[in-house]
């Protein structure tokens, strides 16, 4: 008997399956235009790049690009292959397949009337952030940590009025082997206690 109904159900279930999040690190030659070349190549092929951060490494001749990509293993494989085709790319690593530490940095400017500054300062302290600039009607806050911590802070501070916000995008590094401290859950030592996994 035909089983078109089952095939249709399986196709629907596959479509509803959430896309996996992958963190890729690409070591590239530190030459002019490399960021535009690689980001343009990925965009032209329609890859879902959620975050992209780049900076110089311990070797001034090399930079490290960290990508956060949404997709299945096939998409991850395609992104890796496309990156390896670029002449300026030295090495590509799937960091998310290993034990790693991940951070995001945010600067956020918040409306701060005299009566609300105490609450804003208290919330900033709870999230291990710091106020880096104070104006007549607003304050600027610096906060770093894992993505969920940054997102939680944004939602809690939003009622005060967000004037401006900028984020670096995620950066990540594989953990050392044989380390003295072992945070099995990949927790953020700067997270508020209530957000840490038990």
How would you summarize this macromolecular structure in one to three sentences?
The chain is an alpha+beta fold and 198 residues long. Helices cover 29% and strands 34% of the residues. The chain has two domains: 7-97, Alpha-Beta Plaits; 100-175, ACT-like. Chain A, domain 2 (Alpha-Beta Plaits), CATH 3.30.70.
Characterize the largest beta sheet: strand count, sense, and whether it forms a barrel: 5 strands, antiparallel
The gyration radius over C-alpha positions equals 21 Å
Total of domains: 2
CATH class of the largest domain: Alpha Beta
Classify the secondary structure makeup into a structural class: alpha+beta
CATH superfamily of the largest domain: ACT domain
Report the count of strand segments. 9
For the record, the CATH architecture of the largest domain stands as 2-Layer Sandwich
**Can you give the mean pLDDT?**
83
- The coarse overall form would be elongated
Residue runs with pLDDT of under 50 for 5 or more positions: 8-17
CATH topology of the largest domain: Alpha-Beta Plaits
| Number of distinct helices | 5
Strand content: 25-35%
Summarize the helix and strand pattern as letters: HEHEEHEEHEEHEE
């Amino acid at each position: 008997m035909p089983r078109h109904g089952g095939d249709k159900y399986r196709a629907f279930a596959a479509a509803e399956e959430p896309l996996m999040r992958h963190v890729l690190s690409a070591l590239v030659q530190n030459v002019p235009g490399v960021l535009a070349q690689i980001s343009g190549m990925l965009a032209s092929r329609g890859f879902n790049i959620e975050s992209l951060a780049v900076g110089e490494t311990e070797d001034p001749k090399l930079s490290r690009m960290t990508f956060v990509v949404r997709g299945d293993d096939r998409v991850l494989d395609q992104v890796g292959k496309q990156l390896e085709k670029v002449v300026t790319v030295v090495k590509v690593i799937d960091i998310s397949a290993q034990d790693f530490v991940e951070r995001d940095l945010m600067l956020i400017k918040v409306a701060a009337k005299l009566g609300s500054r105490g609450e804003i300062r208290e919330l900033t302290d709870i999230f291990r952030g710091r106020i880096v600039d104070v104006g007549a009607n607003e304050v600027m806050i610096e906060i770093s940590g894992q993505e969920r911590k940054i997102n939680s802070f944004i939602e809690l501070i939003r009622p005060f009025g967000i004037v401006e916000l900028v984020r670096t995008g995620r950066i990540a590094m594989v953990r050392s082997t044989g380390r003295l401290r072992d945070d099995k859950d990949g927790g953020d030592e700067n997270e508020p206690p209530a957000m840490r996994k038990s």
